[in-house]
Amino acid sequence: MNRELLAYLCDPITREPLDLATGRLDDQGRIEDGMLKSPSGNSYPIRRGIPRFVPSKELADSVRSFGEEWNFFNYTDFKENWLAHAVKSTFGTAEVFADKFVVDAGGGSGSQTLWMLESGARHVVMLDLSDTVDDVVQRNLGPSGFTNYDVVQCSIDAPPLRSASVDGMVYCHNVIQHTPSVEKTAAALFDLVAPGGEFVFNCYPLNDQGFLRWVRYHLIYRPVRQAVSRAPFWVILAYSRLMGFLRQIPLLGYLLEKSGFCMQGDVPVREGEGVLQRLKRKYRTTTLITFDLFGSHTYQHHKSDDEIREIVRGLQPDPEKVLNEGAYFSRPKPIGCALRVFK
Fold it and tell me: Does the reported pTM lie above 0.90?
């Protein structure tokens, strides 16, 4: 943990500033172990360079499947998907991260944090509640050579960062639907943004308008997810791999995705890539995204356009300070498009 992070940290319960009561430094001068304390007496440990704000075992267990998912799959092979979809559809270019202080809320495997650093971010603070912070995040960020980042283990609906402290960007992509309350989490993350900064987020849509969409969502997707998500890790993995294979069969795969049994989405073309290599990438992408859709995590909200509009207006009543609304609420929506809410 960089000592500079102390200026941003606060008690997630009382919102008081935190002081370093005890600390041991590594050979680079970063805080390796120690204890953070608030004036009220609350204390939070720093272990392996990571400040820990885990509110309860129950909440930590609610995201255990994400730890299993990212520790197993990782995400490093999907930078081109991130650039072609999340970045292009939301910002146009990765240059938006250059020289910015960024909070990566729900950073998962740490890959997006790494890509933001590679895009020139001044500093990235990755927040995540799952045990990826002790596994795949270390594998991805440790050897990177970057030191201008910090990892904080916490729930993103109660981030231990001071209000209005982030002058750059709070980024929450494809994560907010996995928290207990989308509304509460959006408000908590927007509270971190300083004037002139922005909160970037998207949420799974409630795509049940029209008879066929209603049948797909309510009679296929939801019952299948309810059954599959209760199964052990290896069963969810087997189901996802089966769907990954079947999705590559012409017509059958298309029908399976359109019916809600799996998802492959768009797989960017690589120049000079052979047919077999592309099929393997499509299989891996389908397996990963399907696992994500049907995993055993507790929360998976789908919000209608009107519900998202209401959340945005509650955060920022001035429509001039909200970007991407036209694209975000269009159908079909550009893949990976997120809303940009400025303060």
Answer: yes
Alpha helices in 7-93 (DSSP H): 57-61, 64-73, 79-81, 88-90
Q: Is 299 within 8 Å of 260 (Cβ atoms)?
A: no
How many domains is the chain partitioned into structurally?
A: 3
311 and 260 within one domain:
no
Integer-rounded Cα Rg, in Å, for the chain is: 20
Distances in Å between the Cα of 183 and the Cα atoms of 56, 68, 86 are 21, 26, 22
Measured CA to CA, the distance from residue 176 to residue 203 in angstroms comes to: 6
Q: Express each pLDDT in 172-209 by its tens digit.
A: 999 999 999 999 999 999 999 999 999 999 999 998 98
**Sign of the CA dihedral 95, 99, 102, 108?**
positive
Considering the domain architecture, whether residues 14 and 44 belong to the same structural domain is answered as yes
**What is the phi-psi region of residue 48: left when phi exceeds 0, alpha when psi lies from -120 to 50, beta otherwise?**
left
Cis peptide before 45 (omega within 30 of 0): no
Across 68-72, 158-162, 214-218, 339-343, least confident range: 68-72
